[in-house]
Amino acid sequence: STGGQTPVPIASVAKVMTAYLTLKQFPLGPGAAGFRVRITQAQVDEERERVAMDQSTVAVRAGETLSERQLLEALMLPSANNVAALLAVHDAGSIDAFVKQMNATAKELGMSQTTYTDPSGFEESTVSTASDQVKLAREAMQDPTFAAIVAKPSAVLPVVGRVLNYNELVGQDGYVGIKTGSDSAAGGCLLFAKRMTVGGKTFTVLGAIFGQRNGELVSAALAGADALAGSVADSVKDRVVVPAGTKVMTIENADGHKVAVKTKRALREVGWPG
Asked: Full-prediction pTM beyond 0.85?
């Protein structure tokens, strides 16, 4: 980590908590569709209002029915703010009640520098730190459905058709998620997951990067995260911890006879400095 622990706006990275809470309340098995929501005219009007405010949305049509899985795909890939609000109301009855759940869960997870004020991250008062968001990522990625959704480069939704994941790293060089975010207050943001194999051992690196402003915001976040993940990958190595032939103990019997115990072969381990 670098850059201190001052809470900053996180934009749409906030949607990770919205998805996490939805799946916690309504678990989804492999291939399951989950609950269904019928879109009302009021929700269509709300989506149009959000478009006028230059928010990220997914178009909806009155009378259409969307499954929980489709809603989560719309939330996490094209980052639909209107879907974040829809899920909040469905899950908790109101946005205010859902935000209380978000903050209570953050406290449970030890995210002491995090405050949620809305389910989408559109409000710049929704703030967190990179280390707090990595704590959430560690929990969320343990849900196979969450992990499968954020690893998708695209998805097909009923009205809009194919939507792309704003995280263009997904599907390349081991990246399997997780969520982009961008606006003028937050800059470019990315909570990421990258699978690596070193010394025959496969593991996942989780990281977060906020406040990137070098060019187009999302692109800046992707570039910064890729450099960060690359630096981790370069430092993770298969190292010899104890060489072959190293004396590791001496055994002494009751008669005082001593025998030196040495390693027959080298002990190797995957690790990184520190």
From this structure: yes
